Amino acid sequence: MSNPSLLILPGDGIGPEVMAEVRKIIDWFGAKRGLTFDVSEDLVGGCAYDKHGTPLHDDTMAKAQEVDAVLLGAVGGPQYDKLDFSVKPERGLLRLRKEMDLYANLRPAQCFDALADFSSLKKDVVAGLDIMIIRELTSGVYFGEPRGIIKEGNERVGINTQRYTESEIARVARSAFEMARKRGNKVCSMEKANVMESGILWRDVVQEIHDAEYPDVELSHMYADAGAMQLTRWPKQFDVIVTDNLFGDLLSDLAAMLTGSLGMLPSASLGAPMANGRPKALYEPVHGSAPDIAGTGKANPCACILSFAMALRYSFDRGDEADRLEKAVNDVLGQGIRTADLLNVEGATPATTSEMGDAVIAALDASL
Ligand code: IPM
Ligand code: MG
């Protein structure tokens, strides 16, 4: 049997730096655990635009469709701010999500024991936190038509459309209920049914899928604004949160900070199963390209490393090895080895990106 294939798209800003650490981890699993991947690498985002005049070349898109999983770093940077909207770096990422039909975006917010003191919230609010946000990723206001900036009389009007079909809601609701059954068996669905018709439909469909197929799972509904408030008030009330594309974008950044740093949060974007039974999949850290620290060795590679752990779990059915990698990251943090984003002690010397990667490798070695 051939090795599973990975397409690596480091992207822009700190993307290549954090991905270099993931390459070390991938090599470690090949050398020490007999888990060898066929790895190829390509461009996405601003760097792809610089080379090809498009943030995602058709050949890269085709490759992404063929591999077992895609690992992405980050896209974007200030030098691309003035580009036409259609070729902005972010369009490359959105094209991958849309054409691979990666409708379920899993964003776990777990508070590592060693970081409970580091969150801006009180320790007892976040210690032991383990929630999973499932964000719908291929529809809603990100993709709805009509969209654009039009002229109305003598002023411009900006238009975006929030649009959800029943089947789009139903499939992501199923992902959430399935996930809940493997965890705390609770789903909270968030929308704005008080002001949006799409929210009313969202609530109805989630409830229908629940009643027909998952009556054993505890389901609640919350307006997304109240959900944001509850997430900061007492986040441990949640197990799985399912929400739309835009609310999920906001709520997952909020949830990330509960855990201490955006530099810790991985994500998995999953679609329908392919012929080999594996889901279409793209793994990426939730943080962006952080152009302000790119090239300085300050970036935290953990979110990207933990995204690879999610790949082991969700694409390659190696939850055991994913646990090993997650534990290695936790051990390193416990040893006090931290990148600058996780240090608030005066005078402490932060680990560089590559020192952090090396420390994770050492912890992996120690796990054998
Ligand atoms: C995210 C990011 C993206 C999004 C950007 C880079 C297009 O913020 O993955 O959360 O808005 O979805
Ligand atoms: Mg975001």
Summarize the model shown.
Helix content is 41%, strand content 21%. With 368 residues, it is α/β, with parallel strands linked by helices.
Characteristic key phrases:
2 domains; Isopropylmalate Dehydrogenase; binds magnesium ion; alpha/beta; 368 residues
Describe the secondary-structure layout.
Elements: E1 5-11, H1 15-33, E2 38-41, H2 46-52, H3 58-66, E3 69-74, H4 89-99, E4 104-110, H5 123-126, E5 130-136, E6 144-152, E7 155-161, H6 166-181, E8 186-191, H7 197-213, E9 218-223, H8 224-233, E10 240-243, H9 245-258, E11 266-273, E12 279-285, H10 302-314, H11 319-334, H12 353-366
Parallel strand pairs: 1-2, 1-3, 3-12, 5-10, 8-9, 8-10
Antiparallel strand pairs: 4-5, 4-11, 6-7, 11-12
Helix pairs in contact: 1-10, 1-12, 6-7, 8-9, 10-11, 11-12
The protein binds 3-isopropylmalic acid and magnesium ion (MG).
3-isopropylmalic acid is lined by residues 90, 93, 249, 288.
